[in-house]
Amino acid sequence: MNIPINLGWMETCLLAAVRITAFIVIAPPFSYNAIPLRIKAMLSLGLAVAMAGRLPAAGTVSDTGPFIVSLLLEVVTGAALGFLVYLVFAAIQTAGALVDTFGGFAMAQAFDPQSLVNGAQFTRLFQMTAVALLFVSDGYQLIIGGLARSFDAIPMGGGFDLAHPAQVIATATTGMFLAAVQIAGPLLVVLFLADAGLGLLTRVAPALNAFAMGFPLKIMLTLALGGLLVIGLGHVVPGMVDTVMGYLARVVARG
């Protein structure tokens, strides 16, 4: 029995699988550790097979060295695109960290091995809510679509100029901190006003230990108003998906 093997198609599929795997390992929501590694591997291979049909077949590489270099370039490309997606959605986790710090929950930090997040209650709550909303709102499909379009702009094995992604990542870092403050801003203002009120109360009645009352008061305000922030994430996550698509479009346009 003679079974023909198209080596060019296999090389194309392997290169595509390497880029997609590097992207899925880093980019949310696929990087969440609750998703089994077997499922991630099957997803990467399935997407690679689907993409290989519309990609130009790579020439058969007779030497091992150039092929390994092509694999490393695909790892760098997928990791850079995945880190860009992670950076945008890190704003939600940072907003939760700000709420924990100003609300008095930061002293109860714990490491979540599923999301690889080291933070207190609202940090992990915001992270899990963002992951759930990405699946519920089909935002993950748009992210996969952005990854698929990267194959048209950045040829496999060819690499790309890292200066442009670095510039976009620097812009995304600034936007991440700004978005975190915007998300947690209303509650932070309330907590600041609570501290200011307690300070004025201490000046009026020095015998009254107002700051001892501050801890339960701030925790009560955080729990009472923190739910409003979680509800607001339903409108924040779709906007962040659009931001991710814009950043990916800028990277692939300059690739």
Would you give an account of this structure?
With 255 residues, this protein is mainly alpha-helical. The chain has one domain. Helices cover 76% and strands 2% of the residues. It has seven helices and two strands, in the order αααββαααα. The chain has a two-stranded antiparallel sheet with strand order 1-2. A hairpin with a 4-residue loop joins strand 1 and strand 2. It is elongated, with a radius of gyration of 23 Å.
Oligomer: single chain
Derived from helix and strand composition plus strand pairing, the structural class reads: mainly alpha
Look at the structure and give the mean pLDDT: 80
| Secondary structure tally: strands | 2
Strand residues, percent: under 5%
> What distance lies between the first and last C-alpha atoms, to the nearest angstrom?
44 Å
Shape: elongated
Q: Please give the largest β-sheet.
A: 2 strands, antiparallel
| Count of separate DSSP helical elements | 7
| SSE succession | HHHEEHHHH
The largest sheet has its strands arranged as: 1-2
Rg over CA atoms, rounded to whole Å, is 23 Å
What's the number of domains?
1
